[in-house]
Amino acid sequence: MRRVVVTGVGSTNALGVGVSAFLDGLRAARCGIGPVRCFSTAGYRSTIGAEVHDLAPPAWLARSTARHASRTDLLALIAAHEAFTTAGWASGPPAGLGVGVVLGTTTGGMFGGEEYYRRVLLHEPTGSPTVVLALPVSACADVLSNTFRCAGPRSTVSTACSSGANALGLAADWIRQDQAETVLCGGVDSLCRMTYSGFNALQALDAVPCRPFDRDRAGLTLGEGAALFVVEALDRARARGATIYAELRGYGNSADAYHITQGRPDGAGILLAMRRALADAGVDAAAIDYVNAHGTGTPSNDVLETRALKALFGPRAYAIPVSSTKSMVGHCLAAAGAIEALACILALRHGFVPATATLETPDPECDLDYVPRASRALAVGTVMSNSYGFGGNNTSLILGAVDG
């Protein structure tokens, strides 16, 4: 079976624009959560989020594309441009390469669509109605394909908060099955009123920055962002002299088949996803050096994930660093799994594990090594990243350093 590697990386989130800004923020355990400015949060139980501030079309983007780009499109375009640049194609991939695109997203162009319909309801000038063309979740993948001339297979994955992780897994399958030589993949979502009000109605938002695994945690913090990757077969990457950031060794999926918002109380679904990921990667649980947890900061999720990790790793669970980078960039929904995969790649390349930055008072039921407050220098070779979405959509990724 062909080995699949990451040869390009791109990032946009509340810690800054670009992979370097993300790396600096992770190392410093800096929390990017603050007041939401892009829409009013008056009347909500929380007024904070992990927002990307001063988001604007980049200079390299064609005016015709910039004019119609949604907030989600802009996040993805900026990350994709960096991914192609770091892959060695600053002007975009060669025209004959047939790059595939698989993107995880859930909000589509909702942010702009909400404003358009608000103006319609209030009988205010709406501007061009073409803003509604960005509403479908599939629209952003179309924009990426058209902007960067990606003529290979194209797909949009929308499995709630595991979407971005599933996009990486599907991209790896395409390469292994010779459906594409190179794939642009990852996840993106923007903040919007619909998701914010929905999580508020569920009473799932914390009024202060989320505190995964903390005794006093009271809910999640919504965020936004994108992480995009160029992935290709190892032999092809070496043949063209590409920088290899990490190997995408395997992934595993499962469905809880239990409840629209609550995970199975026994954690069987998330345990199954982790075991399938290890099997797909061909590695034993003993090989895992670090786990990037789903770690939302909700009372139930963090306990369930802790129990599942103990079931998977046994007594060794207490010796493995586990952290939630949502403590710094919030829960970016469909982008979460991709952003967290990028955090894992940076950990592999730079010899550290990110912190659970806001963890102050450990919960006795969450008694693993959750790397509180500060990142930790540590050489890691194989890592796991977990993403669990509403509806019981569970995905685990296994990433590792390329060893030859």
Explain what this protein looks like in three dimensions:
There is one protein chain. The protein has twelve helices and 15 strands. By secondary structure, the protein is an alpha/beta fold. It has one domain: Peroxisomal Thiolase, Chain A, domain 1, CATH 3.40.47.10. β10, α10 and β11 form a beta-alpha-beta unit. α3 crosses α5. The two termini are 16 Å apart.
Number of beta strands: 15
Over the alpha carbons, how many angstroms does the gyration radius reach? 20 Å
Just name the CATH architecture: 3-Layer(aba) Sandwich
By CATH reckoning, the class would read Alpha Beta
Give the domain tally. Answer: 1
- SS-based class: alpha/beta
Largest sheet features: 11 strands, mixed
CATH superfamily: Thiolase/Chalcone synthase
* Overall 3D shape: globular
Number of helices: 12
Percentage of residues in helical conformation: 25-40%
The end-to-end distance, rounded to whole angstroms, is: 16 Å
Mean pLDDT rating: 95
> What is the fold named in CATH at topology level?
Peroxisomal Thiolase, Chain A, domain 1
In N-to-C order, the SSE pattern is EEHEEHHEHHEHEHEHEHEHEHHEEEE
Poorly predicted residue ranges: none
Proportion of beta-strand residues: 15-25%
Protein topology:
Elements lengths: L3 E10 L2 E2 L1 H10 L5 E2 L12 E2 L13 H6 L2 H16 L13 E5 L5 H12 L17 H9 L6 E4 L5 H14 L5 E8 L3 H9 L23 E9 H6 L6 E10 L12 H14 L8 E3 L6 H15 L8 E2 L2 H4 L6 H15 L1 E2 L22 E2 L4 E8 L3 E8 L4
Parallel strand pairs: 5-6, 5-7, 10-11, 10-14
Antiparallel strand pairs: 1-2, 1-8, 1-9, 3-4, 7-8, 9-15, 12-13, 14-15
Helix pairs in contact: 3-5, 6-12, 9-10
